């Protein structure tokens, strides 16, 4: 056993002792910083309702990050990690490359939120609590994580997930997060102002378009043809009186 191994076991033991401490998440993140570099982090709970933030990295002036507030207020609905957790929640380490849609970097969500808030890459350790809830620790970086860094985090993430699961019982007010209108309700409220409201299938297509899915990905997810996707997209633009994906994002963002 090497000195680094001994230091790891000592640190994990200290974290177990501090499971009920207010600074648990900070101590956990500081331990991870010894093994890989990252620039931002957030611990949150995903469910069918608004995500619950348990702890987050502070800004330089100690104030809440307005970009992150936008995320909580509704932009999370376009987050590839949130979408993946709702579609097929699972334990373990998840990389941005694993969940990002084909056209993710072409979306306004990427340009106006992700690139400014996360910058380059993101890793997320998921702990599936039950069929509806996923406890997550996300690590954002201004540089791409290297294969060696990903491999190391993958090696130690079972320890991290175990600590996260045990920590959850000490968190308070998790059920206090009130349900918020879904993206369907937000877009529907806007479409109601026109003479032709969006159909439920058009809502599905609109969400997938905003999240960065290509026509092929949308067709696969909804089990329809690419031509049908094109027809739905044309109807969406006509009904909302818009001409581009950027205008569709503006409609969604203003509805939040």
Automatic annotation (TrEMBL):
<feature type="domain" description="HTH luxR-type">
    <location>
        <begin position="191"/>
        <end position="256"/>
    </location>
</feature>
<dbReference type="Pfam" id="PF00196">
    <property type="entry name" value="GerE"/>
</dbReference>
<keyword id="KW-0804">Transcription</keyword>
<keyword id="KW-0238">DNA-binding</keyword>
<protein>
    <submittedName>
        <fullName>Helix-turn-helix transcriptional regulator</fullName>
    </submittedName>
</protein>
<dbReference type="InterPro" id="IPR036388">
    <property type="entry name" value="WH-like_DNA-bd_sf"/>
</dbReference>
<dbReference type="InterPro" id="IPR016032">
    <property type="entry name" value="Sig_transdc_resp-reg_C-effctor"/>
</dbReference>
<dbReference type="InterPro" id="IPR000792">
    <property type="entry name" value="Tscrpt_reg_LuxR_C"/>
</dbReference>
<keyword id="KW-0805">Transcription regulation</keyword>
